Amino acid sequence: MTSVNPARTDEVVGEAEPVDAAAFVDACRTARGAQRGWAAVPAPVRGRVVEQIGRLFEANKEALARLVTREIGKPLAESRGEVQEVIDTCTFFAGEGRRLYGQTVPSEMSDKQLFTFRTPVGVAVIVTAGNFPVAVPSWYLVPALLCGNTVVWKPAEYTPAIAAAFTELFQRGGLPDGVLQTVPADGPTTFEGLSAALDAGLVDKIGFTGSSAVGVRIGELAGRHLQVPCLELGGKNPLVVMPDADLDLAVEGALFSGFGTAGQRCTSLGTVVVHRDVHDEFLRRFDAAVRAAAVGDPTADVLYGPMISARFLESFERHLDLVRPHHTLHGSTGTGRITADNPREGFVGDPDAGLFAHPTIVDGVRADDEIYRTETFGPIVGVAAFDTFDEALALANDHGYGLSASIYTSTLAHAFRFREGVRAGMVSVNNSTSGAEAHLPFGGNGRSGNGSRQSGVWVLDQFTRWQSMNWDYAGTLQKAQMDTAVLPADQDFRL
């Protein structure tokens, strides 16, 4: 596996030797052998390891951010923010090592105590995409390891250098041998190896971030083994603009939501749903903002850099075929790939050196359009008009995804009605569809996921199992629901 700098495709960044399915199974077996010993380490000590890992990421923040920019083309400011998210995640979960609380529960009988405990799941296989090559893996690995699980991690095949650096920082933080296994592999090999490892009883939990189509296959595979995976999938995220919205603020949010990271986020804006009364003015301002935005060299001050890889650029170009005659295009001086022959006005750098794409606004999107229902995963944003709040809510929901949604309004009732009616797992008011914080639950519904959540204390339920214990010291067998004391009441009493 070889990666190149997508902003300068003649520059090789990293290489890794891919493993086969048998080696994948061996990694799971090694993780199984290390799990009991890791779980025996007291949770506060595991929390201390997480803290040490966080401090290492902090000390190496700039170097890792620059590697992220080189290998996937993310603007340097965003890369720094992504590494900061790893640091924040470690900071949060370091304290959770002292807060893996169970409960004592009152018994219905005398001389008996009831307890609950969080126990590790066991071995977790984590498969992540490369658009957030350090932040998203940390959402899985940090809580999984903190809870006493061992992890087999399959990073994206186009980020071998980032994966190697990420793994070394974790291991240098104090993880014993075998606790974290990183396996470079392609998709089919991963699926084959995971299936074999499940059949061998070596895997207890699957975490997957990627496309909805692959998520369906992962869910089916896990279900055959009576497991519930943690699935964080795609999105077609709406941003509703009410007639009372601050249009400049809405444009700013749409610009970042739709075109940050070149639209290559699961939380990227899919469709702006604009009230007809302000549609034309919003579109005018949005078009002007996109045209004025700097695009190009990710080491410069740009809105976005290149597509992550040639595969993503090709996919973006195919999605342009979803444009129909009733649509109008805005946002740039061309469409498709940016080249010297198909230039972007104000482009920063050499367009022919990398994999750059024109930002594209598609106006006139309707609910029966294929582009309305398709996650395009690139710098393309649809705009649809509505007349009533119920129409806006339907446009926000009916594509079937349910990851993130935003509304711009100055009316409290609109904000709360939208929160109640939208199916997304994450809702923003007067903010973008993108932007997670380490202590807030992250995840979606419908085609965007199976309801599992990452980040904050909510992710602990993905990597622990509740165990109950009853301790009877009465000296005789007390049978629940049969030997319970009854204090009689006079049910016939009336005032």
TrEMBL record:
Phylogenetic lineage: Bacteria, Bacillati, Actinomycetota, Actinomycetes, Pseudonocardiales
Organism: Pseudonocardia humida
Family matches, as Gene3D superfamilies: Aldehyde Dehydrogenase, Chain A, domain 1, Aldehyde Dehydrogenase, Chain A, domain 2
Highest taxon above the source species: Bacteria
InterPro entries associated with the record: Ald_DH/histidinol_DH, Ald_DH_C, Ald_DH_CS_GLU, Ald_DH_N, Aldehyde_DH_dom, Aldehyde_DH_Superfamily
Coiled-coil features, chain-numbered ranges: none
Family listed: Belongs to the aldehyde dehydrogenase family.
Family annotation (SUPFAM superfamilies): ALDH-like
Annotated active site: 232
Keyword tags: Oxidoreductase
Aldehyde dehydrogenase domain mapped to chain residues: 2-468
Protein name, per record: Aldehyde dehydrogenase family protein
